[in-house]
Amino acid sequence: MLKIENLQVKLEEEDKQILKGLSLTVPSGEVHAIMGPNGSGKSTMSYVLSGKGGYEVTGGSATLDGVDLLAMEPEERAAAGLFLAFQYPVEIPGVGNMTFLRTAVNSQRKSRGEDEMSAAEFLKVIRAKAKSLKIDAEMLKRPVNVGFSGGEKKRNEILQMAMLEPKMCVLDETDSGLDVDAMKLVAEGVNALRDGKRSFLVITHYQRLLDHIKPDVVHIMADGRIIKSGGPELALEVENNGYADLLAEVA
Amino acid sequence: MTALDTMKAKDGVDQETVDAVQSVEKYKYGFSTDIEMDFAPKGVNEDIVRLISSKNEEPEWMTEWRLQAFRRWQQMDEPDWAMVHYPEIDFQDIYYYAKPKSMLVKPKSLDEVDPKLLATYEKLGIPLKEQMILAGIEGAGDTPAEGRKVAVDAVFDSVSIGTTFKDELAKAGVIFCSISEAIREHPELVKKYLGSVVPQSDNYYATLNSAVFSDGSFVYIPEGTKCPMELSTYFRINAENTGQFERTLIIADKGSYVSYLEGCTAPKRDTNQLHAAVVELVIMEDAEIKYSTVQNWFPGDENGKGGIYNFVTKRADCRGDRAKVMWTQVETGSAVTWKYPSCILRGDDSSGEFYSIAIANNYQQADTGTKMVHLGKNTKSRIVSKGISAGRAQNTYRGLVSMHPKAKNSRNYTQCDSLLIGDKCGAHTVPYIEVRNNSSRVEHEATTSKVDDEQLFYCRQRGIDEEAALALIVNGFAKEVLQSLPMEFAMEAQALVAISLEGSVG
Amino acid sequence: MAVSKAKSAAPDARLAAIISPVGGKWASEARKSALTRLHDMGLPTRRDEYWKFTRPDELTKADATPATLLETDEKPVFCDIDRLRLVFVDGVFDPDISDQMAMEHVEIEPLANAAEKDIHWARDIYGVLENSGQSPVNRPLAALNTATATQGMVIRVTGKAPRPICLHYVRTSETADAVVHHIVKVEAGGDVTLLENGPAAARINKVLEVDIADGGAFHHVRTQGRDHERRAAAHIFARLGTESSFKSFSLTVNGALTRNECVIEILGDNAHATIAGAAVGDGKTHPFHQDDTVFITHDAVNCESRQVFKKVLRNGATGVFQGKILVKPGAQKTDGYQISQGLMLDDDSQFLAKPELEIYADDVACSHGSTVGAIDADALFYLMSRGIPRAQATDLLVLSFLAAALEEIENEEIRKDIFGRLEAWIERHRN
Description:
The complex is a heterotrimer. By secondary structure, chain A is of the alpha/beta class. Chain A has a single domain, classed as Rossmann fold (3-Layer(aba) Sandwich). Chain A has 10 helices and 12 strands. Chain A has helices at residues 42-50, 74-79, 97-111, 119-132, 137-141, 150-164, 180-192, 207-212, 233-241, 244-250; strands spanning 2-11, 17-26, 31-35, 55-64, 67-68, 82-85, 92-96, 143-144, 168-172, 199-203, 217-222, 225-230. By secondary structure, chain B is of the alpha/beta class. Chain B folds into 2 domains: 1-30 and 451-506, no CATH class; 37-98 and 113-128 and 146-339, no CATH class. In chain B, a hairpin with a 2-residue loop joins β3 (150-156) and β4. In chain B, α1 (13-23) runs parallel beside α13, α3 (60-74) runs antiparallel to α9 (204-212) and α7 (179-185) packs across α8. Chain C has one domain. In chain C, β3 and β4 form a beta hairpin. In chain C, α3 (25-41) runs antiparallel to α7 (140-148), α8 crosses α9 (390-406) and α9 packs antiparallel against α10. β23 (426-435) of chain B pairs antiparallel with β19 of chain C, so a sheet runs across the interface.
């Protein structure tokens, strides 16, 4: 269970408050969606949860199954089960995709006191998972995200998610820049990981992704806070009427 | 360090790197071996030069050659143009000759070699003894299933302690022995080629080397011969206050091929030790030499105390048409490095390549690069240099690409990238480009940047810790060079990259 | 490091013969101290690393080699641009044929006048920027200039100058050996364009010192050459304040020897410097040797510098580029870019380059590129396949090669003027 309470965050370099008392709970096995206008702090939330530099937490807390996320290094949060699918996956020249993933898988296993995955086993598992995401062997050999198309990058993020088997997945605008077919493929990949225990927090601008990844709860975020929560119908309401009415309600 | 047979596929190489960061202690090779040594008195003069010559049982002409070099050297000044700073070296406070006492009577075979010496090499990861046993088995086809065979010449302080696989090489007509042996056994070859690529008076350190070199390796690959295995030399400076002045001479006759590996280590010492080597490569028509170095001399401690001064002259002369040479170097060690493996592209259609990774951490200083001198028509050269600076280190790429008027239709491509880790280090690029004909094309690109925070964060979000993530990214940055190394060296090099960068994050 | 002992000990008749002119208090002091540092460093010789690609002999010897005057009916460059024109004849300012030295937001005064006064604001710039530029590399010819110059302009800019100031050089003597020293002070918020054109003398030693205060902008466009036999050493020393901007472009055509040194110190945050040059040389009738030597020091945060140099060479012409970007510790977020390219139209010419980076800060993006080669055969074929004759196609490709350097000229009218000059030159030198 991810529990965020009254989280307040500002930019380190300029005195600008981004999150202003964000509270949110995603119980195990549930899928929550966050929608909101540009600049409402959605991406900031995903970065602060995963420990990116440049932000200062000025108040509140965030825990995953009771463990304080904010006190840990990024890699410790990852090992604790938090996964962030990046809006803009980073390119790492010269580092093979497969090597990267195997290093990540085994680092996490090691830090959890588990046995490392052997090369053969890893190869077997990744091939099966890659196939279902239509990622070919060539893509696995190429350097991480270098020269990948937008769709390939996002599929690669989902593949990493599948390999790392996190407890809590944060998907930051995974649908951005994808055509309908690519989005379906990504959504299928995500749905395949829904197992009743794993939780998801899906950040998106558009309702259409939620047609494919059905959320249990939809939150609307504005100006660094959740201003309204509801069922999937809330997303449709936003799709039809925009955010203006909702913003007016809370103003 | 990593045994040959542990490597299954190149794919797993980066994993080794990561493991190395976590498992390998700092400067693994920093042990010294307690072996009784036979020293010549400190300092250098004509008597010492004669002594070295006589200890090696050299003929008169060789002694004269050395003396000639020594007289030149006395009139020369130490060069000061490189971007390196170090206290003045007292050349009279160095032992120019140190030999393990057990070597005073020449061993008949490796079995007679001091077991402590062999143990040293085991620690270095050279399966010398094992290979020696293999070499003792009569008959061909005795190559073990796993891994390739590598013939090793090991040089301990000043003296070569033994060359493996001699018999098998001899069958192919390949001569691989210590240079002192070559001077005695193959004087006609040595006379013809020694100093023909790096002349006696080439530069201060090369001239000193010409006077006092005590040993090194000699290779001759006869016409049309592909050397049946990779050749390797391991250099180790053990004794304190010694200088190591080895001399390597490789001749690849017409249409021949050889791949040569060179590894270097030294124990941790508080004092600085001097290493001034000369390597000469002669490449005839249609011949090819690949020369790979993993230089891991002790770099000094975190505070810049101790470490090797590495002043090395390496040069390849592509004498014949279509001759090829490839230098690959991974420079992670030494307190000060001054080294420019060069290619003289004399033959038409000859080609030279230079791949380099230079890592400088803590207080290390590296001034390294290459010279590509295009003299023949249709000659090609390629330079890929990856410099990594961390801590308070200074790392300079210095290079020359020269297209002479007669070098029509020649090409050079240079890519020179620097990576900075931390704000106290420096990265410098000093290329010289001289083009004197218009049918040739020269392209030079250089970039300097820091390790990308986004990349680091991305790796860490996937659960990889900071140091491992850095090693991964740096290895990715240097990929092109690592790929040009023979496989077993590539692994060692990747691990070295990781070790060299220890303590440079956070 | 700034002073080499070995050289100062060398007997140098030329040095011994140099006497600083007497002037007002500040000028005499500045000249005297320049002479002292010149004696300390000595004149450059062929053995100096910094003169590896260019022989300094003609620039250092006692008397200038005579240079024939070029007869031409070509109109001077910039003549159609509305500008304030100041004319130097054989290196000496001639007020009678110059425009009135008055313009809004600008004060102009001949150096000769300013140097007579005991107190003058020029004291804080004259020889001061030059002196600062003497480290880490010596530039003795600039010190020689400071020590001996009596001619030049002293310009102070307090706001946006309504039109460019043009220093127009005219030659009448075959032997004139000129020393000219200009200083420009751009006050906070000032903005001025300085143009320079014309052959100055048989041999000229020129220094331009530019001090740009916070938010100031300085644009500089000069043409050098015209006369085949003339020789020139020109130094620019610029100091940049916060959010200031410096842009300089040089066109070199003809000239037996041209050595342009540009030393830029970026001291204020968020400043920008561009130094660009186009050189076209044809050694057919006269030797051509052109050298751009640039040293940019970043000593502030978030600054940008660009160096763009293009050289077209034929018939034994020589093009030299030595460019360095030095990023000092703490000069984070520096963006340094440098490109030098040689286009060789035949086999006799040479292009010699030493593009250097010296970087002591990690959060930087610095790059340099250098290429040398002939006209791209594919491009040439493409143009010819469209019916363009070879000679004309070659011209087009030469102009397209040079275009990137010309684009660094901000003012469109001036850019067009320069472009026209180039076109005419290329046409004249068609094979």
